[in-house]
Amino acid sequence: MTEPAQMTEPAMELRGVSVNFGSVRALQDIDIKVYPGEVHCLLGDNGAGKSTLIKVLSGVYRPSKGEILVDGKPVTFRSPRDAQELGVATVFQDLGMISLMSITRNFFLGREPTKSSLPFSRIDKERANTIARQAMADIGIDVRDPTQAVGTLSGGERQSVAIARAVHFGARVLILDEPTSALGVHQAAMVLKFIIEARMRGLAVIFISHNIHHAYPVGDTFTLLNRGRNRGTYAKSEISRDEVISIMSGGEDLKAVEAEIAGLLAQIGNRPPAAP
Amino acid sequence: MAVVEDKAIPPGELKATDRFGMTSKRAAGADERLASTGKLTQWLRRPEAGAAGGLLATIIIFALLPGAANLYSLQGSMTFLTLSAELGIVATAAALLIIAGEFDLSVGSMVGFAGVVIGLTVKYWGLPLWGGIACAFAVAILTGYLNGLIVVKTRLPSFIVTLATLYILRGLSIGITRAVTGRTQIPYILEGAPDPATAGIFNGHLLTSLFRWMGAQGWIATRSDGIPFVAGIPMSIVWWLGLTALAGYVLTQTKYGNWIFATGGDLIAARNVGVPVDRVKISLFVYTACAATLLATIQVMEAGSADTTRGLLKEFEAIIAAVIGGVLLTGGYGTVYGVLFGALIFGLVQMGIFYTGIDTDWFKVFLGIVILMAVLVNNYIRLKALGRGGGK
After folding, report:
1. Torsion angle (degrees, nearest 10) of CA A224, A164, A186, A243
2. More exposed terminus of chain A, fewer Cβ within 10 Å: N or C?
3. Which residues of chain A neighbour B26 with C-beta distances below 8 Å?
4. pLDDT value for B162
């Protein structure tokens, strides 16, 4: 369990963060450092505390204990908006996209460019459309018509709109919550490439997943969560894919389960299947 | 071409010429699976298309029935337009609120209560008309604010919260009026008011000289003294069209309009990107209450009296007009122009049935069928807008 040898300051850091819901300790004493230009994967099985951790990082929950630091300074997020203003953008699993609204309207929601500063001044739609299209093109996706409803896009395209939005509005820390979990092979590959693109631009990317096959190829650092605790942070060179899987699932447990299944199959194997 | 190139690059391999080996499926301009959509299809996908079609059908149906000449005469038209206008003023406001994901069932009671406030303050407190109207709007702002505040703070369904307001306001109207006057009506409000001209803003007519001139030319029917039957365009219609245009502009062209759609489309997503969803909702509750008060003022100024039963069932008529107009009851989708058509259908049917001599008992049956058809068409159009069967 070593820290990656980097000279720069972490873009975002958690120090001893715990979250309790009543008597349930969802997270205990979590330390995480995320550096610019790094893809930091948070891996864990269901119930490991991934969702709670994202909500702490993105400003939805406040930690019961511990500190959040952005660029080395302690901060308190009262809302996701606070986090965004400090450059911490989260793409939630449900994407925060409104399917009946157009790509452009979604892209600029809450930050609409207007033609003047009067209360009911017009949205500068031409500029908004151009910027939205350009921001999407920059990240490698060509939108034919930015006025089409987000609901008409595929899952991968929606994900890319959400990522393009976060990057465009100056995110320095990009948190992606299970961005590939609902996607097919091609689209998942597309999103993984966007993650690399974001990394190349010097963003700190926090990639939350339970799918090691998506996380391992793009990740630089892996933090493994199990039952609300940090089971270690590893650089890619220090750990193999199989080791990650083993730690994620609680290692020994899985072997026991495998042995049990093998025994069961051996038993069944001796008997023919019951006639219907 | 793009697809082939895409497959030629093994996953993970980066090529300098091609950005990260990424060629979007759409990079070459068009997705071959995307059928081109014609102008007609695009227009039919607009939320107000159903209402426009419905209006056209209604106009044609009544044109074929007896009594069409009277219904579509200038006088008949002004009558149904006035009915449409009175509904349209509150329906537009209700539509914005529904798009933001909430209902206001207290609209009808607010119409009655605002009328009573004007009546009592003018008649018994001796305020000038403008003072009485200002009091009514102050009460409306407070009521709307409280409705909104309770809904956003408690997160109770607005359906229930405003249902309570519906009863409270109606009860207050009757209770206060009877306690003060001993009756449930307040007559002769305009008589003796120091500023009768104020009433003209609400019950007057626009373009009166044009209509008089047209009467003199013999183009429109006049009474024996040469004054045309239709003195001009009633102010209620002017208010209706003006407010619809304003609401349409705000909804589609401004930041605030974008927030209204977002609030009703996905509350949590909207809040997460920093849309002040609570403020959006509260302000729209204030607007519906104010729209109801505007209607109350128009009615009081036209009738010269206030009646505690005014506005009965207006809340449902407003919701119906909004739904016919293509506003999605679940929020996040709709236009105010559709509501304009919805209100027109409503007024046209109401007067049409009267002019054709059909028993007016059938009006409600017709209304029920229109609502059902409107909802079916809306549902279909929304799926079309999304381009597939998927919901949210």
Report:
1. -10
2. C
3. 141-144
4. 96
